[in-house]
Amino acid sequence: MPKAVFPNRLLPYLLLSPQIAVTLVFFYWPAVQALWQSMLREDPFGLKTTFVGLQNFSNVLADPAWLNAAWTTVVFSVSTSVLSMGTALLLATAAEKVLTGKAFYRTLLIWPYAVAPAVAGLLWLFMFNPAMGTFAYMLRDAGLAWDPLLDGDQAMGLVVVAAAWKQISYNFLFFVAALQSIPRSLLEAAAIDGARSGKRFRTIVFPLIAPTSFFLLVVNTVYAFFDTFGIIDAVTAGGPARATETLVYKVYTDGFVNLDLGSSAAQSVILMAIVIALTAVQFRYVERRVHYG
Amino acid sequence: MAAIELQDVRKVYAGNVEAVKGVSLSIPDGAFAVLVGPSGCGKSTLLRMVAGLEAITSGTVSIGGRVVNDLEPAERDIAMVFQNYALYPHMTVRRNLEYGLRNRRTPAEEIARRVDEAARILDIAGLLDRRPGQLSGGQRQRVAMGRAIVREPAAFLFDEPLSNLDAKLRVAMRAEIRRLQRRLRTTSLYVTHDQLEAMTLADVLVVLNAGRIEQSGTPMELYERPASLFVATFIGSPAMNVIPHGAAVAAGLVPQGAPEATLGIRPEHMRLVEGLAASGDEAVVDLEVSGVEVVGAESYVTGRLGSSAVEISVRVPGHSRLEPGTPMRAAGGRAAFLRFDPQSGARISAVSGA
């Protein structure tokens, strides 16, 4: 890596300072606040604050509602990741085979990424709204008792599809890039070596895009954990009967709706620990990944 | 083992671009055929059509008497060595060699036997547990060849396999490929743009130009009796000297009013002469030295012919110390001059001793 040398010793720090300021104000300060808050208990009117140590954490971890949300999160994250990555990989391999209008298809497939989560949620909410959604009519005509407002599994299905749909574009981009980085001659050599297209995909393509797939798995899990708040809030608001209440959604309801700030802070600290653990796993893995060439 | 037959093979790409314009070629069983030509002449396309990686627009390709036009690459009983080796980076060398055999459900003992034998022949036994990323260019090249030979195919196809190696290794691998092919006697089709590689490897040398075969034959046939100006200048290094009709008349090489023809003569068929020491059956030209290339045991002196832009190289033994700008006189046996049709480029003169 070439070293850049600045003539002025102060200049590099000056150039970095806006980014550092933003990071400090919007990331570190809230994080520290959350850590501190998680060890306090406030009365409902915000008049008295007591230091309770790790009491909030033990309360949260023993709370059946929290455990339920944790399990919901696992189900939601795994389903969303699998659905969005599977669909994206399918589309990426298909897009590789398109001969004319490749760029056009790619642009269309990348578009949904630009849609804000809440808007994406609303879109799906309208399409599948039991009272007026076009797809709800179609599903009922097909003989399915479609009612995500009462049926928890259907509600979960709906948020998973909405959340996955938004993430497909991102995964698609990475998969397309990964597929393109596989030299054509490798697949030709495999074809001459007697591997048909299914076998080629299993034994050559898939192992070679494994680092990308793993990276996407982590990104998608983190996305499902944290960035799907808007979709869940717009589509189901955590209902029915907490069937779609994920951890991050519970942080919001406990803190901002129920105003139990101590518990909410403790929950977000736990979430922070989870994301740090996930990132650590990713970095370990990425560093050890197979090197090609 | 099998002969490869190409009959009027054509390749037309979308937009009516004709890459291969009717190639007929027959490579006898066990022969080493080399396709050579400038980039874009269709040689790689032709090879890929034989391999089954490119559809054949018309004509037939048969390997061992079997028309393979509609067969998958895997069903053609061929093995191919790619320019970038195309080794599977996530597999060990052993796995790379085994891959094609496993796909064909070869019994395990048979796989082990063939892999060990290939490893021994190519001297890569010590590398079997490594991955391609841990190998040098030359080692990867060997593994790529190993992957071809374990298959024991009817034919080997080589797509510029040496062009990623450095000059020294290229010469060594060239000799090795030749030795290996002699030993295995497997019909081979080899594509290269390097005429020296082509000359040294080929039993059958095929010169392609703009999608057509210019000439095919043994390397020395093509060297001594080129069918066209294109072959004459493409084969041989440094290239044959070409003297257009006008310049030849002006230099007194051909009499006024002689039928129009482009002259060609190889640098080694010319020599520097002092005064009028040339013998009667030699033609003499006066040149002005424009450059000297010393290659070691010999030098190539290039001189400008009269006032024309035509340059002529002359091979001189040893180290020539001629300075640019000095006049010199070169002589070449009249029989050594080849005459080509200025329009079509086809050779018109007979070759003495042919």
UniProtKB/TrEMBL annotation, chain A:
Query: Is Transmembrane there in the keyword field?
Result: yes
The organism named in the record is Methylobrevis pamukkalensis
Subcellular localization = Cell inner membrane; Cell membrane
Q: Which Gene3D superfamilies match?
A: MetI-like (1.10.3720.10)
- An example Pfam family from this entry, by short name, is BPD_transp_1
Could you tell me which residue ranges the ABC transmembrane type-1 domain spans?
A: 70-282
**Subunit description:** The complex is composed of two ATP-binding proteins (UgpC), two transmembrane proteins (UgpA and UgpE) and a solute-binding protein (UgpB).
- Any one GO biological process: transmembrane transport
**Protein family (similarity comment):** Belongs to the binding-protein-dependent transport system permease family.
Stretches that traverse the bilayer: 12-31, 69-91, 103-127, 155-179, 204-226, 265-286
**Where mainly found?**
membrane
Q: Which UniProt keywords apply?
A: Cell inner membrane, Cell membrane, Membrane, Transmembrane, Transmembrane helix, Transport
Q: How does it sit in the membrane?
A: Multi-pass membrane protein
> Would you tell me the protein name for this molecule?
sn-glycerol-3-phosphate transport system permease protein UgpA
TrEMBL record, chain B:
In the bilayer, the protein is annotated as: Peripheral membrane protein
What's its EC? 3.6.3.20
Alphabetic keyword roster: ATP-binding, Cell inner membrane, Cell membrane, Hydrolase, Membrane, Nucleotide-binding, Sugar transport, Translocase, Transport
CDD domains the record matches: ABC_MalK_N
Q: Name one GO molecular function term.
A: ATP hydrolysis activity
* Location(s), subcellular: Cell inner membrane
Q: Which domain of life is it from?
A: Bacteria
User: Which InterPro entries does UniProt cross-reference here?
Assistant: AAA+_ATPase, ABC_transporter-like_ATP-bd, ABC_transporter-like_CS, ABC_transpr_MalK-like, ABC_transpr_MalK/UgpC-like, Mo/tungstate-bd_C_term_dom, NA-bd_OB-fold, P-loop_NTPase
Domain (ABC transporter): give its ranges: 4-235
Enzyme's top EC category: hydrolase
Its family remark reads: Belongs to the ABC transporter superfamily.
What name does this protein carry?
Answer: sn-glycerol-3-phosphate import ATP-binding protein UgpC
Organism in which the protein naturally occurs: Methylobrevis pamukkalensis
